[in-house]
Amino acid sequence: MTKNFISSACKFLPIVFVFALVNLTSHAQEISKEASAIAAGESLFNANCKTCHRVHQKLIGPALANVYERAPSIDWIKSFIKNSAGVIAGGDEYANKLYNEFNKTQMTSFTTLKDEDIMNVLAYIQSETEKGPAVAAAPAPGSGPTSEEGGQQSAYLNVILIGMVLILVLLLVILAFLVSALKRFLDQKELSAEDKEVIHSPITIGTISRSSGFIFIVVFLVGALGFKAVINGLYSVGVQQGYAPKQPIAFSHKIHAGQYEIDCKYCHTGVMKGKSATIPSVNICMNCHNQIRQGTLTGESEIAKIVSAWDNKKPIEWVRIHNLPDLAYFNHSQHVNVGGLACQTCHGPIETMDVVRQHSLLTMGWCIDCHRKTDVNTKGNAYYDNLVELHNTASKTPMKVEDMGGLECAKCHY
Amino acid sequence: MEESKKIYWKGIEQLANSPEFVKHAHHEFPQQPDPEEDPGHSRRDFLKMMGFGVSAVALAACEAPIRKAIPYVNKPVDIDPSIANYYASTYTNGGDYCSIVVKTREGRPIKIEGNALSSVSRGGTGAQVEASVLSLYDNARLRGPKIGRDKISWEDLDNQIIGKLGAIAAKGGQIRIVSNTIVSPSTRASLAIFKEKYPTTQHVQYDQASQYGLLKANEESFGTRSIPSYDFSKAKTIVSVAADFLGGWIAPVEFTKQYAQTREVNEDKKEMSRHYQFESILSMTGANADYRTQIKPSEEGAVVIQLYNSIASKAGRSNLSGGLEKPIIARAAEDLWASRGEALVVAGSNDKAIQVLVNGINDMLGSYGKTILTDTPVNYRQGDDEAMASFINDAEGAKLDAVIFYNCNPVYDHPMGDKLAAAIKKISLTISTGYKEEETGTLVNYQAPDHHFLEAWNDAEPKKNHFSLGQPAITPIFKSRAAQESFMIWAGESNVNYFDFVRNNWKTWFYKDQTIDFQSFWDKCLYNGVLELPSAEAEPATMSFAADVQTAASAIVSNYKSGGFELVIYESGALGNGSQANNPLLQELPDPITKAVWDHYVTVSPKDATDINFAESFTKYFSITVSGKTLKLPALVQPGQTPGTIGVALGYGRTKAGKVADGIGQNAYPLVSMVNGSLRYSVSGVKFEKTDEVYQIAQTQTHNTFMGRQTIIQETSLSNFKDKHWDREFHPKVSTWSDPQHKVDPGAISLWRGHEYKDHHWGMAIDLNTCIGCGACVVACNVENNVALVGREEVINRREMHWLRIDRYYSSDAPADDWRGIEEASANPEVIFQPMLCQHCNNAPCETVCPVAATTHSTEGLNQMTYNRCIGTRYCANNCPYKVRRFNWFKLHDNDQFASANPSMNTDLGKMVLNPDVTVRSRGVMEKCSFCVQRIQQGKLTAKKERRPMNDGEVVTACQASCATGAIVFGDINNPDSKLSKLLKIRPKDEKHPHRVDKVTDNPRAYQVLEEIGVKPNIWYLTKVRNKEAVKA
To answer: CA A384, A385, A388, A390: dihedral to nearest 10 degrees?
Structure first.
């Protein structure tokens, strides 16, 4: 319990901010210039730092260009990243100066980062610093790959349809020619008056609509369409695809995840750990909105709601969008952490949504479908080694989720 | 026959033959009134409209309701929704102690498990410990402080009490604090602060199951009033005279752990302890004994004298008079003497004289320093019967001015409770700190409710130099306050915080010679839950036995008179002393021996019950009269009960415990008498009379013998087992059309192609030798899997929902071919316990008959049950040879009908205990043991997340975790290094196909129940070995 108290005390302290200036160039040479270190640093930077820092731009925390020269020492940087609260509390002069400069916003402590991780991040920062600020490119709002693919498919279908219609019209014309030819042929013969009447009887709407063939076709079509509509209707019971309720705060994923490229995991902290991806608590919002009070779309009014929730200690009652029935067990960490799936696989192009809507069906058929098609992400996971070996001796296709019992009832229902 | 001329008319109309009648005469039925004439709507119209209305509403309801997701404002760093947190803590209930780990989800405790770091309870738990998590959510809890029947604020309560205490202190009035045994040193310190402020305060402790006689005997024998540590694990010969040390005597969890160690046998260790039991009722301990002798309670002393004499003649000490020859005593003495230094004799009696003699025997056997450790005394029982009696007498004589009942309920659970109830009114200030109101709380002036132990900080010293911390696993649900804080506030302390108090105490007491800073030390203690200090003396102190055995023997001779029926009053196997009686998990836990639930009864020997036709639990009421007090209870015929004795359990007859317990049975505490300064839990000369009133006791098992069927139960004797070539007596064989001579192994033929388990193959082994039948696993399973409780009526209807049951079988004296006789248990039977749960058959009969494939087989060997697919045909249950499937005959959740029997699914408070990972089943579906599939999935996921193969022991089923004896072993058969694989010595039948289901076990003790039907279960049982010459059928 006490541990809780202490750690909870630490973690409230909002995050954000950084290293100090002071000329100490000697440390720069320690920073690696190897491409592998820079690449590793880039991914670490994007995952951990990018939320608050840019290299050339002051965001929630200071711009990080040249930080390795500004800061008192590389060791100082390391200790500050690992425990900024401790460094500030320890009375470090520059740390306190920065702390005050950035409105007393404290940087999250990254206890999980190892020394070499930090060195890699610095390598990345150094390479970016040397590159200089990039010319900002307007983000092209490209349509998602799914819709593009769908467009191609439907164009292909249209061509086929038009072709078929043309063939049908051609058939009709041919039939009309045949009928007139036959009529002419019959006219040349000696026929009774009755037969002649039959031949020359006019084809009217009335005669068509009374013909038994027509009635059968109409009844069949109406019945079949009605049946299909009923079945479709029943299948949609409880399915909330496209559900996009109004939320108490007009939060836009398009701005946060799309425009600012904040990593999903920064706010949805549970996604790698547990069943629930978790809706971010207000303190996570306040990490940034302690500073940022002016919204892109809504001005101050919506952000003010977060601040008031924080000040009044009143939780925000978000409307839950993705509802699975209680009898189904779904675990985010299994899919995101172990399976390595992107959030978009199920949640759709969330980074383009101003208002989040339920992208997928979330029906059992939808789950099963994916479990049938998806290859298990076994790379680098020793848990699967034995299974993969056994699978490969028996089969040439990669191991699907289905092949290791992914369709069994008790994987999700217990 | 002549035709009759008589004419019968339909009515007067026909006789009159009016035109109106003629007009309608051809209609069979009289004409209905014209519907046009009916001004209102017909019933059919109404139904039509109703139908339309209902379907319209139903359609409209298809729109899902809006569900909210409400995150924290400020999320605590180590609480993540959907991820369980575990906190080491301490269970204390009076003197009962267990070091525990509490599992919490989203801040709610949902499960208790044993703490393996404690060297006292060593990861074990008991049924009452497991169930106590539901007591936290008891609806009968006090919501806040009360004055009389009214609410009051804590400030007002404190002001009034301090004022009154001040006035009492000023005039020198007498103050008493009454409690059960207190094992917490910090609680004692807080009481000391109170006593310092009010010097006239005396602290009186009492125990429901008193050991005052033992305390006094030890004082007389060795000069210190304390109970030593017993170490059953070092004992080769154990003799117990009416001590139920596995069920309730002093520290059953601890003793069970130790005892099981001595009962474990395998190929390499073919030695086990030999256990003799002398007792009147069939206790759980007696049921596990190798030799059991039936005695009357009045003979306990004489048996001890006889045993003393038998040993004294070997040890060269003088004999005592008053012994009584009983079968097996001589033999027990032989064994004891042969295993001197590795022997242990215990007695359950609360009589000082008997305990003095037992000390004498242990002294002669050299048990002290070996199996009895006097240098680490235990604190479980400190109750002083004499002090308690004089307190009640003082209260009656109006000599007291203030009494504080600290978490105890003497009005119910003290023999003089009715006297106390009357006397409480004579005391000007009475306060109770119980977290529930209960019998005592309703009578006092002020109620200052303490936290439940899961909400409170506390510490405990179960035995010398062994400490443990209790930390809250939830913030207090109601406006309760730590009683220790109350004491200190009433003593005038300000800014009292019991957490700081405990922490400072630990700093003062234990933070010595530590190399780490105090915060780290404290964190470590809190993380481990326990702290053990090295004992001061390296050598155990030599104890010299200095009691007068002659006097003790003559006291026994003069004190015990036999005659009439003799009554034994014992702690209920499930409810214990009744303090947790309002916990339905315990009420519906079948008694280990009688298998009765929700009922109070008197146990009668079959010999004394010849005129009761005890069949299908139907029985008669009996009246039991002891010195003017009469109880009326139904009789339960109990094989093994000594003829001429009857047994009544404590723990029933609650009147103010809450909805669950109130009105069940009768209170047996008033029958306990005070003899020679200590409470005696047996009475002679009882009037025991049958009445004509018929009653049906709710029992979960009504057939007592296994009818000699070795396909279910296999046992052997240790002497046989020691043979190098020993094999089980019984190997089932089946005949085929080509070989009708019963020679084929049932596993060799199959209709099915068989499964292949490439990943894991989950299996279980249950050691019948170490299982003592306590039922902790049953409660653990209930809590883990949200198993519904159904109440007495539905248990009688055979509709209990327990996924795991413990079948208890008695031996029979009849020969194997006497089908009638073999149904009857012996008068003194051998008993065997067999936990029975879904066997997860590889050729599961249930799976083949399900028309909707709701029960299917997994690629890991599990027999899966899918509730949302089940349509309730119950074919599977009918086809299950083990009868382990349970059908939801009712909607057991959110149903007023089951509100009192099943509060965990029917009250908002109770629902907090539900495991969020397990579905609450609805009406009309089947359910059964899932092998804790939620834990399997969790374990696999953890391994996958850490990108490593699974380790053995990572998945522990709830039953396995709760089992103090380690009888249940669960694991992966595909992993050759797993504990299970090694225990069973299991290997694939066909080495080329190691993942096929067909396996061979090389452990000769391993067998499967009903093997001959070829269902190939994934559970193996290990043959029971009895340490005796021959085993009964």
So the answer is: -120
Q: How far is it, in rounded angstroms, from Cα B390 to Cα A374?
A: 78
Residue A379 structure tokens: 């790379």
Express each pLDDT in A16-49 by its tens digit. 333 333 333 334 447 888 888 888 888 888 878 8
Q: Are the beta carbons of B80 and A269 separated by less than 8 Å?
A: yes
CB pairs under 8 A between A and B: 178
Measure in Å the smallest separation between the Cα of A44 and chain B Cα atoms: 19
CATH 2.40.40.20 describes domain B563-696: yes
- Among partner residues B69, B471, B917, which is closest to A318 by beta-carbon distance? B69
A322 touches chain B (CB under 8 A): no
Neighbour-count burial for B977-995, b at 16+ CB within 10 Å, e otherwise: ebbbbbbbebebeeeeebb
A314–B71 C-beta distance less than 8 A: no
User: In the numeric block, which tokens belong to residue B725?
Assistant: 């070539």
Superfamily of domain B224-378: Dimethylsulfoxide Reductase, domain 2 (3.40.228.10)
Task: Identify the H or E element spanning B466.
Answer: strand B466-470
List C-alpha distances in Å: A126 to A7, A30, A110, A129.
Answer: 33, 11, 20, 5
Kindly report the CATH number that applies to the domain delimited by A2-131: 1.10.760.10
Domain coordinates of chain A in residue numbers? 2-131, 158-235
pTM: 0.83
Which segments of chain B have a pLDDT < 70? 1-5, 10-11, 13, 21, 24-25, 28-42, 52-64, 536-543, 1030-1033
Determine what percent of chain B is predicted with pLDDT higher than 90.
75
| Distance between CA atoms of residues B900 and B798, nearest Å | 19
Pick the CATH number of B715-866+930-1026 from 2.40.50.140, 3.30.70.20, 2.40.10.10, 3.20.20.70: 3.30.70.20
* Residues in chain A closer than 8 A to B81 (CB atoms): 270, 274, 276, 278
Q: In terms of CA atoms, which chain B residue is nearest residue A336?
A: B945
For residues B726 and B720, the answer to whether their CB atoms sit within 8 Å is yes
Chain B contact present for A82, CB below 8 A: no
User: Residue B89: which of B75, B109, B61, B69 has the closest Cα?
Assistant: B109
Distance CA B436, CA B146 (A): 11
